[in-house]
Amino acid sequence: MHDLIATTALGAAAPCVDHHGPISLTEEPGFALASIAARRGGERTTVLAIRRMIGPTAPKAGHWAGGRIIAFWTGPDQWMLEAPYDSEEFLFERAIKEVKGKASVTEQTGAWCRFDLRGTDLAAVMERLCPINMATFIAGSATRTSIDHLGCFVLCRAEDHISILGPRSCAAALHHSLLTAIRAAF
C-alpha cells in the first residue's frame, strides 16, 4: 500500500503564508472547484441550478455571488463554482445532479491554485500585476485577466481581500509574481 501525502500547489505540506508591509499573501488549497457551461436550450435550467446551490441567482459578467458555495461568471452562460473542500468535497457530483443534463460540468479542483491577498491598499499591488481598474473593482467583482502571461481569475471578496486563481501547474511562478508586486508596492 502506498503512503501518499497531500501537498499544496507550492509543494509543501502546509499552505505558504507571506507577509510584507501591510499585505499578507496566503496560499489557499482548501477549495473545491467545478465549471458549469449551459448547453443550448439549457440556459434557464442552469441558472436555476446555480441559484439552488449558491442562494442568489447566477452572477452576471464581472461578478461573483453566493455564501458557502459561490459562483463567478467566466463567459456567456458559463460559471465556476467554488466551495470549501471540507464541506463540499463532492461539489462536482452535486453540480451534475443539479443541472439535470442541461449543462456540461467539469471538475476543476486540481487544475487551479488560489492565493489570497489581504491588507490595506491592495490596489497598489494589483495595478502592478494586471490591467484591472481597481477604482471600480469592489466587493462582488470578478474578472479574468492575465498576470505575468498566466490566465487568472481575480475576485474581490472585500475591500481588503482579493483572491487570485491561476493554473496549478504555474503556482510557483504566480506566487513569485505576487510577491514581487507586493515588495515593489511596499
How does this model look, in words?
- It contains 4 helices and 11 strands; from the N terminus they run βββαβββαββαβββα.
- The protein has helices at 43-54, 91-99, 122-126, 171-185, and strands spanning 17-20, 23-27, 31-38, 64-66, 70-75, 78-84, 103-107, 112-119, 142-147, 150-158, 161-167.
- The protein is α+β, with helices and mostly antiparallel strands and 186 residues long.
- Strand 4 and strand 5 form a beta hairpin.
- It has 2 domains: 17-29 and 110-185, Probable tRNA modification gtpase trme, domain 1 (Gyrase A, domain 2); 31-109, Heterotetrameric sarcosine oxidase (Alpha-Beta Plaits), CATH 3.30.70.1520.
- A 6-stranded antiparallel sheet has the order 1-2-8-11-10-9, with helices on one face. Strands 4-5-6-3-7 form a 5-stranded antiparallel sheet, with helices on one face.
- The chain is globular, with a radius of gyration of 17 Å.
